[in-house]
């Protein structure tokens, strides 16, 4: 009953009341926009705290570059190859009884490298020499008999038949001696074939057989070896590279080159194009080019990997500055207080490094002093980058 008697007039909506914004309270759009503005402001503050006012920078390493690299027409990779190289083997089959060289030994032409057992061929030589001696002994008797018959025939004390028989015997003995001499020569050749000599002046690269192993001119079984040692003339080294057909137009015989060995990337060897092999590899679409060294040292060895940079003919074949230099991008060098500097990063701070710059090579600058190869430097500088400024590597 009390609910029925309650005054319901308090729940009536007053249609004539002014809107909420007109009562002096904040507008509805402001209530909605304020949280969004706060969120954006907090984000900006957090981002600023994250950067800490740091300047975004990028790093690039100082690299070794050849002075002539800016003029390279084409590049190709290949290997150092000796143009005079031989796998030295025995002409006779037998057991190796002597080996007088090891890898790295230098030998002269005709020097004895190894010997194969020669007992059988020396016995044949002795037999041939004995036959020759027997023939010489018969020759003396045949000559004496012939001269006697000749004198007797002149005085009519002998017959023509006896004279002809003595003459025929002398001719047979002479022919027998020639046959015996040929046998001696053949036996001597057989003995010589058991001796393995160096065919030219060179260096022993590999040793493929040892004393006690059977060697033969052709490998006839799993236990026989053909080559005993491998020789190379280290004065005939060249680099053989495969040049792409699309780059072949940039290569010509006699043109200067720069050779870089993978084993010694800091050293540049001057060279020239010696020969362009007149055939192409259809599978690789390349043409083999042989590049000769103008000069090289003992560090260059056969089968080393190498890269060849082909230079224009206007480029001197031998430069005074063929050694590689340290380079950085030109934008990484700035002038501070009258000195050339680059900047490295230590933690989150820029560190100023004074340097001595050389000439410009394309888009990079040579650094003569003050910087080591591989040191990361800021690749592009502006007025904001100073000593000790806070940076962030991106």
Report on the structure:
24% of the residues lie in helices and 36% in strands. The chain has a six-stranded antiparallel beta barrel. Strands 9-8-6-11-12 form a five-stranded mixed sheet. A four-stranded antiparallel sheet has the order 3-19-24-23, with no helix packed on it. The protein has 394 residues and is an alpha+beta fold. The longest helix has 36 residues. It is built from three helices and 26 strands. It is rod-shaped, with a radius of gyration of 47 Å. It folds into four domains: 83 residues, conserved putative lor/sdh protein from methanococcus maripaludis s2 fold; 89 residues, Efflux pump adaptor protein, beta barrel domain (Elongation Factor Tu (Ef-tu), domain 3), CATH 2.40.30; 69 residues, OB fold (Dihydrolipoamide Acetyltransferase, E2P) (Beta Barrel); 75 residues, Helix Hairpins (Orthogonal Bundle). β20 and β21 form a beta hairpin. α2 runs antiparallel to α3. The N terminus is likely disordered.
